[in-house]
Amino acid sequence: MKQDNITNQRISGAEALVRSLLEAGADTVFGYPGGAILPVYDCLYDYADRLRHILVRHEQGAVHAAQGFARVSGRTGVVIVTSGPGAANVITGLSDAMADSTPLVVVTGQVGQQYLGSDAFQETDVVGITQPITKWAYQVRRAEDIPAAVARAFYIASTGRPGPVVLDIAKDAQIGTLDWLYEPVNFIRSYNPSPEIDTKLIAEAAEIINAATRPMILVGQGVTISGAEDALRNLAEKASIPVCSTLLGLSALPSDHRLMKGMLGMHGNLGPNINTNRADVIVAVGMRFDDRVTGNTELYAPDAKIIHIDIDQSEFDKTVRSTVAVHADAREALEALLPLVTDAGHNEWIDSFDRHNRVEDREVAAVELNRPEGSKLTMGEVISRVSEAIGDRAVAVTDVGQNQMMSARYFRFTRPRSFITSGGLGTMGFGLPAAIGAKIAAPHRQVCLFCGDGGFQMTIQELGTIMQYGVGVKMIILNNNFLGNVRQWQNLFYNRRFSQTPMLNPDFVRIAAAYGICGEDVSEREQLDAAIGRMLADDRPYLLNVRIDETDMVFPMIPAGSAVDRIFLSEGRIYNPDNWSEQ
Q1: Residue 114 pLDDT grade (very low, low, confident, very high; cuts 50, 70, 90)
Q2: What's the CA dihedral at 207, 208, 212, 214 to 10 degrees?
Q3: How distant, in Å, are the alpha carbons of 441, 500, 579 from that of 428?
Q4: Which of 338, 353, 368 is the last residue of a domain?
Q5: Residue 552 falls within a domain, yes or no?
Q6: Strands 164-170 and 104-110
């Protein structure tokens, strides 16, 4: 093992990169070698006992795995890939991480600077391509600039609103030498990741909350990023305010907490969506009023004063105009509000959430979870059974589509950082590698992946990563031989013209077996519980290929562009809370 705590030591740029990653706190990297990054990979050989490298099977998988690692651990994920196609293959993951505020440092190899701009073999304009989808993208051309660039990259990626950073390192910078010195970065001129709270705005927000009769708290991932879960719970309990979550905010408050009323948005719960348009005050914390949450913004929360708390000032008034905009870290803002808000009841208002949600339980959940004997399995009942069997303590990772929405609806959470999915970009193929990263970050937690047959095949090669490292992910494929979410839209809005959505799938269990992974097919309801039991009892990776009713659809559903209180409980049945009947 090489020593790296000695200054004034002449070393290569490649070794400076590895040492700098260690100094920044990294202990795991995900990557794939190639010619333009070979000096770094040669150096990794000497540091293998201190910096664990996970060899993925595709560079997109490296970024998604690093995302899963970062989202579960709260640390910055690290990726190392080569130039040209290696760098180009991280673009989807960078876009996903940017949309979902995931801290990453992605190192790409680059041709030597003498070849830059000459269309050399595997040269790509990495900085030009990635600038729009990162917090910072920088090309390093000199060995002596590597330590400072790494320190700056970690600081930018992990502070303020987190996000991905790219360091594109020319090959001669990796080969060149420098006197070793690493200095952490904790200040960058013109970059203010920790805004000072405006106490006048906090007081104004508290006054609005105290005067409210129908308040709601809307929770986004910013609560989790800032570690504000306790502050959220304390404020909600003191002021008796119902809490509703975005997709990425799930697990910030336990599912069974008396004030947790469910998910917002297109496939969210009735109580949160109906009452959004009845609330007189909405406290939005660490969320950006995404279109999937708001629906038609002209019809959104017409009677509500909106208090928007966010670390990213650019989110204020972008889609929904706020009454008070508090530019601050979520935890600091909630802790500042707590002593100023008064105890309150709001019992009738809280009961109204439960009343709507009971209708949903009866009209939607009961239908999904209690199918008659002899009928095909549904997505919801599989997810619910897994959640129950594991005691609601697992990390649930999903791909994108119906499997994602059903997981959000029917998996239950008791701990923070327990729901990992692709939100803003909606990336099919995210789930499998993200689950690998999540399990590596939290080896003592059970990690369950819920995936559709379409998304699973987009990154199926990462079964090789699971095989090589024995990553004990539990994989549940909800297999309906369709691109299910697209099929649902075709069924509802395109006259059942199922254009290019039926899928002829391979034998997933035999494919898993080829990678040395245990698995089994489940097609009958009476097989399900025993199969789940075998999966959870096995410490090794395990795959369940569950045959699902291809006609199963996700409800409730708000049609795109509609008001959030225009909700379908099933095909053609719109919920009228004042006079529930078929419309």
Answers
A1: confident
A2: -150
A3: 22, 16, 39
A4: 353
A5: no
A6: parallel
Examine residue 370 and state whether it is found in any structural domain, yes or no. no
Tokens of residue 548, six digits: 């699902």
pLDDT exceeds cutoff 70 at 366? yes
Instruction: Looking at the structure, tell me whether residues 139 and 215 fall in a common domain.
Output: no
- Count: domains in the chain: 3
b (16+ CB within 10 A) / e for 350-386:
bebbeebbebbeebbbeebbebeeeeebbbbbbbbbb
Predicted TM-score (pTM) of the model is 0.96
Taking the C-alpha atoms of residue 494 and residue 491, their distance in angstroms, rounded to an integer, is: 6
Asked if 422 contacts 100 with a C-beta cutoff of 8 angstroms, the reply is: yes
Report the amino acid identity of residue 577.
Answer: P
Nearest to 2 by CA among 40, 37, 50, 36: 50
Predicted confidence at residue 102, as pLDDT, reads 98
Strand partners, 282: 216, 306
Structure tokens at 254: 């336990």
Question: Of 353, 388, 421, which residue is a domain's last?
Answer: 353
Residues in the chain, total: 583
**pLDDT at residue 580 in the model:** 65
Contact 50, 22 (CB under 8 A): yes
State the Rg of the chain over Cα: 25
